[in-house]
Amino acid sequence: MNLALLLCLLMLIGGVWLMRRAVREARSEQVVERLAEGQALPDRKKMGVIQRELLRTGLHLPSWLAVLLLVAWLLVAFLAMVLGGWLALLIMLLGPLVLLRLLMMWQYSRRLQRMIGQMPQFLDHVVRSLKSGRTLGDGMLLSMDSCQEPLHGAMTRTRKAVERGMPLADAMEDFAELYEREEFHILAMGIAVNQRYGGNASELLNNLIGMIRDRDRAARQLRALTGETRISAVVLGGLPLAMGGYIFLSNPQMLLNMWEQSGGRIVLMAAFALQVIGTWLLWRMMRSI
Q1: Same domain (yes/no): 204, 146
Q2: How many CA atoms lie within 13 A of 52 on its CB side?
Q3: Domain residues for 252?
Q4: Of the four, 80, 113, 245, 285, which is 20 to 30 A from 72 by CA?
Q5: What is the pLDDT of residues 182-212, one digit of tens each?
Q6: Which are the contacts of 54, defined by CB distance < 8 A and separation ≥ 6?
Q7: CB 195 within 8 A of CB 136
Q8: DSSP 158-183
Q9: Per the domain annotation, does 77 fall within a domain?
Q10: What is the domain count for the chain?
């Protein structure tokens, strides 16, 4: 019991320290943003992993809220350890991380699909701007301002970089590297070639519009033809987890007794490892179709 109280005290002290540090970092970030008004877009290599994932998913989480959620998560994990033992602690530590990663992957995929669906309209607006006499840079900036969400929010960072003096080709290349989509890389490469060597930008954009629409049509047909296979993979991946959760809720003492024994602990850890490997293999198979 003394060890549990000591761990609780250490978590509270760590949470208070993290919250104070988050407040200081938030103030420092505001000062840096004001000082960096005239600077170009930061390099993708200098961007942190968490910051990059938040930009890709379009989520905006203040530092103080992230620290508050972290402290609440640690407290809930400590209560789980006190009430349910080390197995409950392991579930509370790994479960939220896995769910958060899956949520961010789903949000990124959903947001990216919507952005790809809005690209033909965005590029068509650029083509009309070019035909009206505007330059490629002016047409891109005008289209970035008038496009809809989520493409507008994703392009805001690129538009600000161009307004601060960054070349349009470099800004679009950074945008393509951030979202890692072939259509964005083709657009960035076409803009770079056009600005360096010249050429008919309207024809390039029209060809890109046709390619995006053809790929979207083919992807929809493929999803319709492979729907049964994908549903089967989801059922096979989720069935062991559902059965394990049902057994833990209906008879938790069974799993707890297994965890207390050395042989049972090895069996549970092996089952968890096999479940992770099987889910990863099913996910890779689903991505391949």
Answers
A1: yes
A2: 15
A3: 226-289
A4: 245
A5: 888 888 888 888 888 877 888 888 888 888 8
A6: 60, 61
A7: yes
A8: HHHHHHTT--HHHHHHHHHHHHT-HH
A9: no
A10: 2
